[in-house]
Design a protein that fits this description.
Elements lengths: L4 E6 L9 E4 L4 E7 L2 E10 L4 H19 L7 H6 L4 E3 L2 H16 L9 H7 L11 H8 L7 E4 L2 E4 L11 H16 L1 E7 L2 E5 L8 E7 L2 E11 L3 E7 L4 E4 L2 E4 L14 E8 L2 H14 L1 H10 L4 E6 L3 E4 L4 E4 L4 E4 L3
Parallel strand pairs: 17-19
Antiparallel strand pairs: 1-2, 3-4, 4-8, 5-7, 6-7, 8-9, 9-12, 10-11, 11-18, 12-15, 13-14, 15-16, 16-17
Helix pairs in contact: 1-6, 3-7, 6-7
This protein binds adenosine-5'-diphosphate and magnesium ion (MG).
């Protein structure tokens, strides 16, 4: 692979919370709004084909996946699942993602649950029509939330009539995995920013790792820390500051605790999960935010195949062993031993 010259430019604000960019001789940048967020694809070089070709293929893939999962498109698989049916046939990719989502629910003891949709709608996080419902109504709608109420066999989905899903906590992670495959096909080095999810395709250079910055949850124009990361990984962050509304002086954010139906009352400000499987990174980042610090530390100890960066409300950053060369000005960095 061509050596990518290491010019470190932090584009934290443009890319939402993350990252640093090497300068390559063939650099193509494309922006696209999809899945309710702004995405940026930067391809630096490729050994098979042109950077433009890689970027275009990725854009096409983003559109395909959006079409399949967009809950606002009446003929998407998500909308078809969310209609009042108990059995339907879905696309292969949808079946695969549902299986991954269910696995993530099992691994996280239900902290991640795509069937959160009925409650999410009550709060207005599906369409921006925000509001605070009565406690009784939230409890009633919570009855419909349980990932065990949806099952997948081949391409057939069976569900309760009231079961509805939101793939907002996992679809971008899955998309990242698909785009990384395209980069690998072309032997391309690329940096993808998918609305809070970063995908590092290929190695920045033979000798150098990528440098990634994590947004400061208390001051989202700046970073809380930066660290070094190997290529071919996803870096996914979830935090209450990404989407919220205010009502009667209180703030309500978009990560819902499936046990209560309310925005998770977390002692974590953000959770970053780093790993080779972006769909799991995405689901776990949402779930660990729901779980809070103590359970997240226990989870991190049990899951060696991922790395974790937990930013706590006490100005600490807790990291696992794969997070190297971390630098932070405003937070105390501590290690999670495993
Ligand atoms: P972002 O969308 O900002 O990247 P997350 O990956 O944390 O953030 O996902 C939050 C989204 O996931 C919400 O907007 C909603 O669609 C959905 N969601 C909220 N709470 C849960 C939950 N407990 N389990 C699964 N999905 C959730
Ligand atoms: Mg997520």
């Amino acid at each position: 692979m061509k050596k990518v010259v290491s010019v470190l430019i932090c584009v934290v604000i443009v890319l939402q919370f993350c990252s640093c960019v090497p300068a390559g001789d063939t650099k193509v940048t494309e922006n696209i709004t999809a899945m309710n967020t702004v995405m940026q694809i930067t391809v630096f070089n490729t050994s098979k084909g042109t950077a433009q070709e890689v970027a275009e293929k990725m854009i096409q893939r983003i559109k395909e996946i959006e079409k399949l999962f967009d809950a606002n498109l009446s003929d998407s698989d998500t909308s078809r699942i969310n209609s009042a049916v108990t059995e339907l046939t879905v696309n292969d990719e949808t079946a695969e993602l549902l299986n991954t989502a269910k696995k993530a629910s099992e691994i996280t003891g239900g902290a991640f649950d795509i069937t959160i949709m009925p409650v999410l709608k009550l709060w207005g996080f599906n369409d921006g029509n925000y509001g605070v419902a009565d406690d009784d109504v939230i409890k009633d709608f919570l009855e419909f939330v349980d990932y065990k109420n949806i099952s997948v066999a081949g391409n057939t989905v069976t569900k309760n009539i009231n079961t509805q899903i939101s793939l907002g906590g996992i679809a971008k992670g899955y998309l990242g995995d698909e785009l990384l495959e395209i980069a690998e096909e072309y032997g391309a080095t690329a940096l993808l920013s998918l609305g809070g999810n970063i995908v590092l395709c290929g190695n920045k250079s033979e000798s150098e790792k990528w440098t990634v910055g994590i947004k400061n949850p208390n001051d989202t124009e700046n970073i809380a820390c930066s660290f070094e990361c190997d290529g071919n990984k996803s870096v996914v962050t979830s935090g209450a500051y990404e989407r919220y509304f205010e009502y009667s002086g209180k703030t309500y954010h978009h990560i819902i605790d499936p046990k209560t139906g309310y925005p998770a009352d977390s002692d974590l400000l953000s959770v970053t999960v780093i790993g080779e499987n972006g769909a799991f990174c995405d689901a776990f980042s949402t779930a660990l935010f729901v779980m809070g610090k103590e359970k997240s530390v226990a989870f991190a100890k049990e899951h060696n195949e991922f790395d974790f960066i937990l930013i706590t409300e006490n100005n600490e950053i807790l990291i696992t062993d794969g997070v190297t060369d971390i630098e932070s000005e405003n937070f105390t960095v501590k290690s999670i031993q495993r």
